[in-house]
From TrEMBL:
<dbReference type="GO" id="GO:0007266">
    <property type="term" value="P:Rho protein signal transduction"/>
</dbReference>
<dbReference type="GO" id="GO:0003924">
    <property type="term" value="F:GTPase activity"/>
</dbReference>
<dbReference type="GO" id="GO:0007189">
    <property type="term" value="P:adenylate cyclase-activating G protein-coupled receptor signaling pathway"/>
</dbReference>
<dbReference type="GO" id="GO:0046872">
    <property type="term" value="F:metal ion binding"/>
</dbReference>
<keyword id="KW-0479">Metal-binding</keyword>
<feature type="binding site">
    <location>
        <begin position="35"/>
        <end position="38"/>
    </location>
    <ligand>
        <name>GTP</name>
    </ligand>
</feature>
<dbReference type="GO" id="GO:0005737">
    <property type="term" value="C:cytoplasm"/>
</dbReference>
<dbReference type="GO" id="GO:0031683">
    <property type="term" value="F:G-protein beta/gamma-subunit complex binding"/>
</dbReference>
<dbReference type="InterPro" id="IPR001019">
    <property type="entry name" value="Gprotein_alpha_su"/>
</dbReference>
<dbReference type="GO" id="GO:0005525">
    <property type="term" value="F:GTP binding"/>
</dbReference>
<dbReference type="GO" id="GO:0005834">
    <property type="term" value="C:heterotrimeric G-protein complex"/>
</dbReference>
<comment type="similarity">
    <text>Belongs to the G-alpha family. G(12) subfamily.</text>
</comment>
<dbReference type="InterPro" id="IPR027417">
    <property type="entry name" value="P-loop_NTPase"/>
</dbReference>
<keyword id="KW-0460">Magnesium</keyword>
<keyword id="KW-0342">GTP-binding</keyword>
<dbReference type="GO" id="GO:0031752">
    <property type="term" value="F:D5 dopamine receptor binding"/>
</dbReference>
<dbReference type="InterPro" id="IPR000469">
    <property type="entry name" value="Gprotein_alpha_12/13"/>
</dbReference>
Amino acid sequence: MEDRQTNRLSESLNIFETIINNRVFSNVSIILFLNKTDLLEDKVKQVSIKDYFPEFSGDPASLPDVKCFLVECFRKKRREQQLKPLYHHFTTAINTENIRLVFRDVKDTILHDNLKQLMLQ
């Protein structure tokens, strides 16, 4: 059930932390989709992220600064930083270019795993 008192981003970070730190996922690469980038762009123009995340130190009107901060928020939730890579993609429902980037990340993951296994043999 959705908590209407909790900021949706904070709620997403909490859910992500629970999932990313579950031992079932400790040996898998993660691709994080940060969807609705078009809405984020509008939101950055209307509201300061510092109102919700006072620790934000960038320019609250800068979309790249806000995106970088958001990725770091999610990245910091992972307790075991040196494990499998965490890929991220900012997406919109209508952007088909993202699927090409997803395939690239999947190939990177497979290559990374195969190289690691070869080094162990």
